[in-house]
Design goal:
mainly alpha; two-stranded antiparallel sheet; 12 helices; 1% strand
Amino acid sequence: STQSTGRGVQEAIISDMGRPVAKPGPTILELINTFSEEFRCVINGNSTNLQTTEISGGAKLFYIFQDTFGKALEEFDPMTGLYLSDVRHAVRNAMGTRPSLFVPEIAFEMLVKRQIGLLRDLCLRVVDLSYDELANTISVVCNRNFKRFDNLKVAVIAASVRQLSDTLAPTREMVQNLLDIEQSYINTNHPDFIYRYRAGMASSKALSDGSVEESPSFTSLPSSSSSRTSICDQREYSELGKEIQHKLTKREREEVGMIERLIIQYFTIIRKQLQDSIPKTIMHFMVTHLTKSLASCLISELYVEEKFEYLLQESESISKKRERASNMLVASMRHRKF
């Protein structure tokens, strides 16, 4: 009974280590297809080898899109980097030699384009985070599938990362294009912007009349006075640290306040659009492209007869372990025979 148990253990070890490769070509094809399929499953969340210690793969990408990127967008102040003097000078310069009866639209457009541009680094950052997670997923899946063949594992990781790297430039370029598109044309006729603008005007009138309660839409507006200090009330300092005093007329205060509200309202719309379009861009140009092309890329690069022997060269530790188990199995069988 003890001999049977020992023989069973040795046979299990040999089975786990794998038999010597008889057909290298089909073996490489099978390993590549298995790796590519598991990588796709990890991204889609239906892998049979799910990690329990941390989120990874597709779940990590979702976390990057929704929590990291989404939260950063929500916390980004639309008036970041803008000072009272910036808005004041923009309004004055847009009027030229004659004062305008209304707030100059060109001043609003110039300032909101500047604020939209501040989101560029944030959007590109989420591309880099997604790239890093995909590269990490490649490494994890490879380590799980190529324990026996170190050379093949290294080659698959290198080829997969190169394929992933080929998607980085197009993805970043498309993200850049999305920001350029938003900056190239400020759509003041956007239905959401028109609604917010009209609601804002109604709420301003309600404030002046002392009848805010009659304007229920006022509470839903991203008004600068509801959650943050108005730019008109912010302190501004010179490079020497001395506070700059601004004496605003009633008209100037109204103009600056209106520009501030318009920027916040329009910025809210752009933020919502980017929160939807940036993850879609990454999924299309990077994730989907990689999962679809990975297997064919690996086969074209690694399925070369001259490379078979090198790629399927076993790890020295595995060879020794199998040899030791085989010798013990033979000895056990001989002992049983006698």
